[in-house]
Amino acid sequence: MESWRNAKALFAGVGFPPAAWLLVFFVVPLGVVWLYSFGTNTSLTEIEISGTFSNYARALDPLYLGILWKSVLVAAATTVICIVVGFPVALAIVFAPDRWKPWMLLAIMLPFWTNLLIRTYALIAVLRREGYANQAIGWLHDSLGALAPLVGLPQPGAYEPMELLYNNFAVIFGLVYVHLPFMVLPLYAALDKLDKSLIEASLDLGAGHLRTLLLIVAPLAAPGIVSGVIITFVPALGAYLTPDLLGGPDSQMIANVIERQFKRANDWPFGAALSFILMYATFIAIAFQAMKNRQAEARQ
Amino acid sequence: MAENPIIEIRNVCKRFGQVTAVDNVSLNIMPGEFFVLLGPSGCGKTTLLRMIAGFELPTEGQILIDGQDMARVPPNKRPVNMVFQSYAVFPHMSVADNVGYGLKIAGVGGAERESRVREALELVKLDGFGARKPNQLSGGQRQRVALARSLVMRPKVLLLDEPLSALDAKLRAQMQFELADLQDQVGITFITVTHDQDEALSMAGRIAVMNKGEVAQLASPSDLYEFPANRFVADFVGSVNLFEGKLTLDEPDRAAVDCPGLGKVYLNHGVTGPHGADVWVAIRPEKIQLHVPGEGKAIRGAAEDAPEGHNFARGTIKGMSYLGDITLFEIRLESGAMLRVSRPNMSRRDQEDFTWDDKVSMHWRADSPVVLLS
């Protein structure tokens, strides 16, 4: 590998196009939006960059803070459920016979290859009143109900379909469904590297499976858990499509509010301020995590 | 012996799919014994050890520890502890936390745990290392942590899986002595798995040599070396010259084997094999004495210059390998067969006595060869 010092022209040639691409299509628009967040609407289409902080001040209104807080809660719930569901899945793949592993990983990644919109509409088909979930539960209800008189129980009434869609449950369900692979893959990577004899040593020293999991496996998989949490929590916090399609009137998340500012409300400066509050929060969280990591490394 | 075995292995088989890893093994291991399972890789020794620890279940047969059937006892409930080949020291815990892990799980509280951890660390000569992290230790020290972590549990049996294989040669020799001392000190039964015959011979009270899932021989180190039961053991433990032959004479106090490669080999004891049977003669390289033809102690009436009652052969030196303490010779016999002879260098100029293509005479005692029926 040549040092970039010895081949400046080559490195400039290879590095320039992507750098320019990022600059023109990412950094510049982001800068524009950032500037908007300090602006005021002067007419329907004109924004004056007046350097005001009033957009940020408005974002601190309890209404918006409430939605932001709720978004954090929904994203946190999503992340926790993803860990609880994803950890056993990752463990199962790690301990599966070698010839099954690629297929199990494929099954985890398969949803990636389908458009998010299509996946979300499929969820609607599953969760709606006449959806597959209600049909299946209704069928169970009816067939068990038919058996009830045989064992001396009263015949239950007709099945009342559950409201599974257009509420917070649907949003979290949808977010977990979308983000589970992001959790499973880093967990799998961390657990797969784990020396299996450490688990055996723990069992050998008298620990049961649960304590081995908590005292040995989880601490050693911590880096995987942390990266899983970050790449699940951050996109879940900014989720737009899932709450938009699966949520009810009270399950809006911050991204839905932002979208409305840019479109229906036509208040770009306020939308920009809300967007950047989300970004600042994310950056602070990641910086905090990095700082913790460095402290942990320094202690060792 | 009135004592009951601490571990009884009864007709144990272990199959992985089509592969039989352990094939009908029965062994009794006595309390306080230093027992070694020796064999080449893939012979089933590690599988057998893991079945004692509980990480594998026998396909057939029974394992009893201290008289109790272990069929339904999981590894965390067995009165045995294991030192893993990779040591498996928990990297996120300090040395003291590693050693105290099992006690903490068992609910042994603060002060007692601390003092037992300190004792265990002293036992393995790691006093003062308690606060260190495993990544600050050398391989040998990590192994001591693994040892202390198991010994602190006061198990009935300590299982060691290739305990010395990851150490360099000097450290390995030192640890062989230390392990034997340690075992003396704590009085716990040790069962060690190794593929290294030196390790096995130097540490073990008894050795079970395993081959293809079966026990090829169970004996003390010296019996194993001097009286191997079959060609596999003779060849695997130490170095050996093997010659095929026919048993032509077999009486209570003498026997003779006619080997096409070596000539007639006389023994001063009986063999109790079928007359005319195909047998193998095994002779260790160090049991053969080498000298310049005509300079041996010529015995009156003997056809050759060898002491009376000794076997005799002649050949040409075709290879020499000077190892410092001994020199190894590859000698081509008159029959064309090769014979390996080792000779201690008892004085500084011994290695100059012979050189390539020298004609040499060899002789060995009539009780040196071993006749093997299988």
Automatic annotation (TrEMBL), chain A:
Q: Name one Pfam family in it.
A: BPD_transp_1
Has UniProt tagged this entry with the keyword Membrane?
Answer: yes
Q: Which organism is it from?
A: Alteraurantiacibacter buctensis
Q: GO cellular component annotations, sorted alphabetically?
A: plasma membrane
Keywords for this protein: Cell membrane, Membrane, Transmembrane, Transmembrane helix, Transport
- What is the name attached to this protein's record? ABC transporter permease subunit
Please give, as recorded in its UniProt entry, the membrane topology of this protein: Multi-pass membrane protein
Q: Which InterPro entries does this chain map to?
A: MetI-like, MetI-like_sf
Which PANTHER family does the record cross-reference, listed alphabetically? INNER MEMBRANE ABC TRANSPORTER PERMEASE PROTEIN YDCU-RELATED (PTHR42929:SF1), INNER MEMBRANE ABC TRANSPORTER PERMEASE PROTEIN YDCU-RELATED-RELATED (PTHR42929)
Q: Does the keyword Transmembrane helix apply?
A: yes
Q: Where is the ABC transmembrane type-1 domain?
A: 68-289
One GO BP: transmembrane transport
Localization (cell):
Cell membrane
Q: Which CDD domains match?
A: TM_PBP2
Please name the Gene3D superfamilies in this protein's record: MetI-like
Automatic annotation (TrEMBL), chain B:
User: What domain of life does the UniProt record list for this protein's source?
Assistant: Bacteria
Q: Say if the entry is tagged with keyword Transport.
A: yes
- Enzyme class (EC, first level): translocase
Q: Where is the ABC transporter domain?
A: 7-237
CDD domains associated with the record: ABC_PotA_N
Q: Which GO terms describe its cellular component?
A: ATP-binding cassette (ABC) transporter complex
Q: Provide this UniProt record's keywords sorted from A to Z.
A: ATP-binding, Cell inner membrane, Cell membrane, Membrane, Nucleotide-binding, Translocase, Transport
A Pfam family annotated for this UniProt entry: ABC_tran
Q: Which PROSITE patterns match?
A: ABC_TRANSPORTER_1, ABC_TRANSPORTER_2
**The keyword Nucleotide-binding is assigned to this record:** yes
Cited InterPro entries: AAA+_ATPase, ABC_SmlMolc_Importer, ABC_transporter-like_ATP-bd, ABC_transporter-like_CS, Mo/tungstate-bd_C_term_dom, P-loop_NTPase, PotA-like, PotA_ATP-bd
Reactions performed catalytically? ATP + H2O + polyamine-[polyamine-binding protein]Side 1 = ADP + phosphate + polyamineSide 2 + [polyamine-binding protein]Side 1
Q: Write down the EC number.
A: 7.6.2.11
Please name the GO terms that the record assigns under molecular function.
ABC-type putrescine transporter activity; ATP binding; ATP hydrolysis activity
Entry-linked Gene3D superfamilies: 2.40.50.100, P-loop containing nucleotide triphosphate hydrolases
Output the PANTHER family linked to this UniProt entry. PUTRESCINE TRANSPORT ATP-BINDING PROTEIN POTG, SPERMIDINE/PUTRESCINE IMPORT ATP-BINDING PROTEIN POTA
Function field: Part of the ABC transporter complex PotABCD involved in spermidine/putrescine import. Responsible for energy coupling to the transport system.
Q: How does it assemble?
A: The complex is composed of two ATP-binding proteins (PotA), two transmembrane proteins (PotB and PotC) and a solute-binding protein (PotD).
Q: Which family does it belong to?
A: Belongs to the ABC transporter superfamily. Spermidine/putrescine importer (TC 3.A.1.11.1) family.
Write down what this protein is called: Spermidine/putrescine import ATP-binding protein PotA
